[in-house]
Amino acid sequence: MTGRVEIHRGNILDLNVDAIVNAANSTLMGGGGVDGAIHRAAGPQLRQACMPLAPCPAGEVRVTPGFSLRAEWVFHTVGPVWRGGAEGEAATLAMCYEACMEELVQRGLATIAFPAISTGAYGFPLGEAGDIAVRVTRRYAARRDLTVYLAAFDGETAEALGKALTRSPKAD
Ligand code: APR
73 pairs with which residues across the strands? Predict the structure, then answer.
């Protein structure tokens, strides 16, 4: 495996990466959780830059500069709202990770940080979300020299991601 996928226990804003992923909503106008934290840290230019890019459908990504963030880029992606699992939520969440990893590769970037998309306000179960995050990011990291940080803002998320890393095969 040339690249690596690691867990970062703490605030995603502490990571020094090329691209930071925002768990946004389709309006891209900010919100609570990690969305609120990223917008507060990036400054008001982030919202201005998002306006012409909205609405963003679930599973897709929109890219803006990071402005006052350390990260050069923000990949705004909209995760699925969990509605019991029978409405394609898992596939949509996987699309978020794939779309962001595709952007990373297309732009020739090397490092990225993800929050646990959809596992907060959107209610996606942590275990399944962790498996999806690890499966998709490891597939990309197995073929390219990329570094992926999965940020866990709390202990429960860190534990779920750790189990997902242990369960998932290292190389495809
Ligand atoms: N760093 C890392 N992770 C964070 C941070 C942070 N600063 N703040 C929150 N998180 C974590 C949460 O603890 C959770 O594990 O990000 C994960 C995703 O939770 P949410 O931010 O609630 O995102 P999501 O579940 O995808 O819901 C998106 O919430 O904030 C609104 O505008 C957003 O409508 C959208 C919805």
Answer: 19, 65
Give catalytic status of residue 18 as yes or no.
Answer: no
Query: What distance in Å separates the CA atoms of residue 142 and residue 172, rounded to the nearest whole number?
Result: 7
**Using one digit for the tens of pLDDT, what is the confidence trace for 127-149?**
999 999 999 999 999 999 999 99
Pull the structure tokens for residue 97. Answer: 């990770």
* Residues 12 and 113: beta-carbon distance below 8 Å: yes
Altogether, the residues listed in the chain come to a count of 172
Ligand 1 binding pocket includes 55 (Cβ within 6 Å): no
State the distance from the centre of ligand 1 to the C-alpha of 35, rounded, in angstroms. Answer: 6
- CA 40 – CA 74 distance, rounded (Å): 13
Task: Give nearest CA residue, ligand 1 atom 29.
Answer: 121
pLDDT mean by block of 10 residues, the chain; 172 residues: 92 98 98 98 98 98 98 98 98 98 98 98 98 98 96 98 90 48
Is 98's C-beta closer than 6 angstroms to any atom of ligand 1? no
Ligand 1 pocket residue status of 151, Cβ below 6 Å: yes
Superfamily of chain region 4-167:
Leucine Aminopeptidase, subunit E, domain 1 (3.40.220.10)
